[in-house]
Design a protein that fits this description.
With 374 residues, the chain is mostly beta strands. The strands form 2 sheets. The protein has a 16-stranded mixed β-sheet that branches. The protein is 4% helix and 66% strand. It contains 2 helices and 18 strands. It has one domain: Maltoporin, Chain A, CATH 2.40.170.
């Protein structure tokens, strides 16, 4: 649902969306014994096939997403405007497993997010076109009681304030663009240890990121772009604190296990300032060539991406749990290198018919161990 209003120098936009889903998981992915787990892995088809029905039984996931967003644009002078964007989103999630008291969810949480952004697209100044902006982001997660399980992720509050600037300068057939961003993020965490004692953690991240790009108009139909920049991302709450079953697998976050000479222990929660966990920091170099002629559009992009402290979930084996064996994963961090290329060809056959062909290639490497990412 959306509404748009335009009044002289003002634009108003309001959007609301609602999604309600009840998603089933493959019943055969849940095993209750080592023998049934082995049979399920080696079987060419699911070992549990029930008669057709519209009913969704356990294991399943129900989710509701409410999203409301408003945007106000004020064109206060020629070529310049102020934009205010505000949004709120409520996510409700329940996950049900095959167990006693199957009517009780094993995960039951409400996630409330606020996002506000103010942008100023300033008038052209000494040949510079660009915008300045500020952003405030807030997120609150609450686990609802009654699951009879240790919460998969803890209760938490995240607040982040950001400021950014993007400027471009055009001369002849060339354009140079630069961007800079500052982020300050605070996190307050409250959760349960394996013995149900309460743990707390509070930590802060700060970061500067930037980018520099160059665009060259090679001809009337062809353009070349190149860009080098840095990126930054803090590990999310699942990557840090996940504990237990989610879907068909068991996962342990970066702060929910210790590794002593290859022996894993999940008996304690590590405070972030006593851990080796760091935010991801990426360095990306992109080159792109575009051409449009006679109803054909070709786009070729080649890039390299080096990410320090890259976060990924790594399989470590099969764990025995109270409800049966499950594949187990841990979140890990490594320095990773990616090389890739994307190609697309769009052909316009008639005014109403067009087609798109694309191909991609990606190569990755764990730089620290000189091995693949697994």
């Amino acid at each position: 649902m959306a509404f748009y209003i335009t009044l002289d120098q003002w634009d108003f936009k309001v959007n609301y969306s609602f999604v309600d889903q009840n998603l089933a998981l493959l019943r055969a992915s849940i095993a209750n014994s080592p023998d049934s787990f082995i049979r399920a892995i080696n079987s060419n088809e699911p070992i549990i096939i029930n008669p057709f029905s519209y009913a969704i039984n356990q294991p399943s996931q129900t989710t509701q997403h409410h999203l409301a967003k408003a945007e106000i644009n004020w064109w206060y002078t020629q070529g310049a405007k102020l934009t205010l964007i505000g949004g709120v989103q409520l996510n409700k999630r329940d996950e049900f497993d095959v167990r006693r008291n199957a009517e009780l969810p094993i995960i039951n949480l409400d996630l409330l997010t606020y996002d506000y952004q103010l942008e100023w697209k300033h008038p052209k100044w000494y040949g510079l076109n660009g915008l300045l902006g500020a952003q405030y982001f807030s997120q609150n997660n609450d686990n609802n009681p009654g699951t009879q399980t240790t919460p998969y992720i803890p209760n938490y509050n995240t607040d982040r304030v950001s400021a950014f600037a993007v400027e471009s300068f055009t001369f002849g057939k060339n354009m140079i663009e630069a961007g800079l961003r500052f982020d300050l993020e605070t996190n307050d965490v409250r959760g349960r240890e394996i013995n149900q004692d309460i743990f707390r953690d509070h930590y802060t991240f700060t970061n500067f990121t930037g980018s520099l790009g160059y665009v060259r108009q090679l001809s009337e139909n062809s353009t070349f772009r190149t860009n080098i920049g840095t990126a930054w991302r803090t590990p999310n709450m699942e990557e840090l604190f996940s504990f237990g079953q989610h879907g068909f697998k068991t996962t342990f976050g970066l702060l929910r296990f210790t590794d002593t000479n290859g022996k894993l222990s999940t008996d304690e929660v590590i405070p972030l300032n006593q851990s080796t966990v760091h935010p991801e920091r990426g360095y990306k170099f992109i080159n792109e060539f575009q051409t449009h002629k006679n109803g054909n559009s070709h786009n070729l992009t080649v890039y390299s991406h080096f990410i320090e402290n890259y976060v990924f979930d790594r399989p470590i084996g099969v764990f025995g749990t109270i409800r049966g064996p499950m594949p187990a994963f841990i979140f890990d961090q490594v320095d990773a290198l990616f090389f890739g290329a994307d190609y697309s060809w769009k052909k316009k056959w008639t005014d109403k018919i067009s087609s798109v062909f694309g191909a991609s290639y990606l190569w990755s490497r764990n730089v620290g161990d000189h091995s693949s990412l697994n």
